[in-house]
Write a structure and sequence with these properties.
Four copies of one chain form a homotetramer. By secondary structure, chain A is mainly alpha-helical. Chain A is 69% helix and 0% strand. In chain A, helix 5 (80-95) crosses helix 8 (152-169). The N and C termini of chain A lie far apart (48 Å). Chains in contact: A-B, C-D. Chain C binds chain D through residues 29-33, 101-102, 105-106, 108-113, 122, 126, 149-151, 153-158, 160-166, 168-170, 179, 182-183, 185-187, 189-192, and chain D through 29-33, 101-102, 105-106, 108-113, 122, 150-151, 153-158, 160-166, 168-170, 179, 182-183, 185-187, 189-192. Chain B binds a DNA duplex through residues 4-11, 14, 35-38, 40, 45-49, 51-52.
DNA sequence: TGATAAGCGAGACGGTACGTCCGGTCTTGAG
DNA sequence: CTCAAGACCGGACGTACCGTCTCGCTTATCA
């Protein structure tokens, strides 16, 4: 995505309009019914303009629904329960948005056949989060709040998985504070010595 | 799929060949690249023969990858740990097969836009399993091994979610007995009083 | 088409109803749009009952539109002009009926790929007619009204061809007595010494 | 078939390959067995590419077998016999080719149900030819070689019809110079005063 | 300042896959 | 062996849409 020096520069308006439209249409029509042509028409541009920016629908949707900055602002660690709560809340916040609910299964389906895409999608989610969780759990072990044989991957799978299944099976308003509290409770007790 | 008395009966060979081919192609090409035309060609039959049996690709894949009988043989309850282990193992056994890994995100993506399909897919998984789990947890509560405020749905989400995320992110051989033991440990401790 | 002695005898009503319906539908929908299924439905019977009697649509149409007896009643020869007129009138009578106009190109198209059918269709038309014409021309030669080098085939081609092209290109009511007279005039002069 | 300024231009190779393949397959399989799918496969292209160019099989066959330019080069009139011979030879030349023998009944059958197609098919044949014949006959009348009451349509029907029936019933090699001479003789005498 | 290069809207193209129609066959149960 | 009823198989249909390409124009940088 490096800007070449020569030639007409890309119109940043188009980037913004396309990303915005993609989210809108995702919520309306779902991932599979979403087409580049529809996005182009609704964003007031053309298919080639979109294909110039994103190689596939999956890349576009990924960028539109899970912008990179969403994964960057994890707070400093406090006590264990608060940290777990932060993680569960992050998972819910990321996955429960309508656009995310619509996009994720589609992205996963595409990832199944495209390793590079899978790496990109998962890499981003895991990226900072995984290390952050590892740090929190290590601190917990040191403080005696977490069993030493608990692996970061297992906790990550529990948290992410529960959030994913909940968003896939529950109505949106059934994933609330009480749901989060319940999950936090289960996780914190599960990893306790 | 009720047999009508009148008219030429269906060729059972075709049913079998199509289901077999569907699983094969899923593992090879993935859900999105899978097409009815390819299945028909490889199974030695034609598209109409397939459309006569299954209304959409999703229905066919569902039946091919998650046949109904897979969900029917949950054993009698024993002690709590064994029961949780049964559930986790069932989740892994169902989701870790290559065809299932390829099929599930696709089915979820289709379900997002087709409520009836969602009900079918989830209904089957939840069908017996949910009630069975509820019974086991109630028994656990009665025996004092489970906190009374633990909900079946939450446990179900943890187990199914962990299995799903693990199959989506780990290599197949990294989901072994040790992984299961670890999950069972986390869950059992999480729900204990 | 020999009736076998054993078993239930065929229902002659069905033969008649199908032939009648075939002519009706030919005039309405044309040869290519005509289907065995439509004929069966309208004749109040079923496809298998029709296929039991006629191997193809072409055979059925042939029998329905050009029954064998139509070609059998050529009158005794009189004078040459009258004989030519008989032939031209026969051609017009056979080809100008709506069902025949609709059927003939279709039958010819099928005949192009099916030699046996071609022999049947042409054989019937040529059958008695060709010999009859040959006799009349021979008599004309003997009487000095026809050049000896005129071949029967050429005259046959002129008469049949003119009738065919006229039915294919003219409206039905433009093929009248005056048209016949004109053609007879051209032919009689053409073959005269 | 007007070239639009905008959009990707058509691949002329495909036009040529499809027309060539259509003629080949017509000679091999006949009109009714000819399918767009087979043509596409054999021409190395696809059905939509064909449907973009020709709305129906009939239009494609028409253009492939009777290209427009075939009807454009009628020579200046000379004496009557030579002119009639020109017309008969043109008829034979157009209709006796294997592809034309296979195509014509099919085109006529389709024309029976599609007036617009009929106008196109007949219009092309009649187009220049009819006027040309009219001019020649008028000249013949003026020169005293043709009866004034001879109509152009009747002569046209005789010539076209004879050529058509001959190609439909005779083997290809039986329509030779001698056949043409015989027909010319019959026609010229038929229209003479 | 002019040449070069890339982006843009417009829109048709090539080709994959779709879901359907229907032609001809087969099965059942009764006559 | 026929009949009515009806489903089945498979060839072909005509269409939707994806991603690419071409055009004529615009907008920037580089020589």
């Amino acid at each position: 995505m490096l800007a070449t020096a020569v030639g007409r520069p890309r119109d940043a308006e188009i980037d913004a309009a396309v990303l915005r439209t993609t989210v809108d249409l995702l919520e309306t029509t779902g991932y599979l019914q979403l087409t580049i042509a529809k996005i182009a028409a609704r964003a007031g541009t053309t298919k080639p303009a979109i294909y110039r920016r994103w190689p596939t629908k999956a890349h576009l949707v990924h960028e539109a629904v899970f912008p990179a900055q969403d994964f960057e602002d994890l707070p400093e660690g406090r006590d264990l329960r608060a940290d777990v709560r932060t993680l569960v809340a992050l998972g819910v916040q990321l996955l429960a948005r309508p656009a995310a609910r619509a996009a994720l299964p589609g992205l996963l389906a595409e990832s199944a056949a495209d390793g590079a895409l899978a790496a990109e999608v998962l890499g981003q989610a895991a990226g900072g989060t995984f290390e952050w969780l590892q740090g929190r759990l290590d601190a917990g072990i040191a403080a005696g709040n977490v069993r030493p044989d608990v692996t970061t991957a297992a906790v990550f799978e529990l948290v992410a998985g529960a959030a994913f299944v909940a968003t896939a099976t529950r109505p949106a308003d059934a994933i609330d504070e009480r749901w989060i509290d319940q999950m936090v409770d289960l996780i914190v007790r599960g990893i306790a010595p």
